[in-house]
Design brief:
The chain is mainly alpha-helical. The protein is 74% helix and 3% strand. It has six helices and two strands, in the order αααββααα. A two-stranded parallel sheet has the order 1-2. The two termini are 24 Å apart.
């Protein structure tokens, strides 16, 4: 295969993949909120159930790579690609861990499988982040 043929099978920026990625982002925030709700003692529960997803969402939106086609391409804090990839993996797979920690193991297992397949199919974006 020549390089132009490889671009035809790249899926990371396909609209369906971008929608799926957005849904993963929302689900991850929900998983962290659920984890905070169940793991925080009652007086602090209401604060952490809001603060944890907000803090994660803030980091997600703030630290980005300029020119990222999966976003607006703009960033508040210019972040090296490998560091951004690490942030994304921490959020996505951290959400899987949160489910596992809560005892929702079957869902955690399926989420893990889906995320691994998603990142394999998004190899072009993963490679782009690693080389930025």
């Amino acid at each position: 295969m020549n390089p132009t043929e490889l671009n035809t099978i790249a899926l990371a920026y396909n609209p369906a993949m971008l929608i799926l990625r957005f849904l993963f982002e929302l689900a991850a925030l929900g998983c962290f909120g659920l984890w905070a709700w169940r793991r925080t003692p009652n007086p602090w529960r209401w604060i952490t159930v809001v603060a944890l997803p907000v803090a994660i969402g803030w980091a997600w939106g703030t630290f980005a790579v300029s020119g990222d086609e999966s976003r607006s391409g703009e960033t508040d804090v210019e972040t090296p690609g490998p560091l951004r990839l690490l942030l994304e993996l921490a959020v996505f797979f951290g959400a899987v861990w949160a489910l596992y920690d809560l005892g929702i193991r079957k869902t955690a297992k399926w989420a893990l499988i889906v995320l691994v397949v998603f990142h394999i199919l998004s190899y072009d974006r993963v490679w782009w982040l690693l080389t930025k």
